[in-house]
Amino acid sequence: MSASDDRCAHHPRVAAVVTCMSCDQRVCRHCIDVESGADSCRPCVAARAPEERRPSRPPQTALEQRRARRFAPPEEQRPTRQPQTTEEQAPKDRSSTAVILGWFGLLVGGLSALSPVLHIMPLPFALLSPVVMLVLGNRALVMAGRDLEDIHQERLPPEVKGRVTHARVLGVLNIVGGLLSCTLMGAVVWFFARAFR
Predict the structure, then answer these.
(1) Are residues 114 and 188 part of one domain?
(2) pTM of full prediction above 0.70
(3) Domain check: are 64 and 133 in the same one?
(4) Measuring CA to CA, which residue among 124, 93, 95, 128 is closest to residue 109?
(5) HSE-CB of 3 using CA atoms within 13 angstroms
(6) Which residues cross the membrane (predicted)?
């Protein structure tokens, strides 16, 4: 098979993926006509008389569905579907979830701080709480940052900005609390390591 056989007959710079059943030429995925139901290139389908053309039907078998997806025209050639409602095009408001994550992180951090006094949670969980605070604080900050970007691009209403700010503050508090807890635990470990030498 030569290098020219690997290229589309209609687009010489594009790799061919299938042979047309009508003209036996190698064609790319852009040239194949999925709606005809057979592996025929678009020029061959267009050359057929209208009464010979198969009616357009959706792919039925799994093989036909895979071929339809594989040989579908690129995005710029596909007809665009207008959204039915404005809810489809509006991005999700992540700030509510970010606020919940922020409060949960602070709750975990507060419980771990009170744990030695009130014996609320076992020591391994108390030692993991700074990591939980750091992870939840980071996630809250990222989600709030995306919502803030959506507000600036006018994809979210400006009324959400208060909740986004709330989520950002909680995220920062979680990160600062997690870092302070890690520092404090490191100092305690260092102290006991030096004391018992």
Answers:
(1) yes
(2) no
(3) no
(4) 128
(5) 2
(6) 98-121, 127-148, 169-193
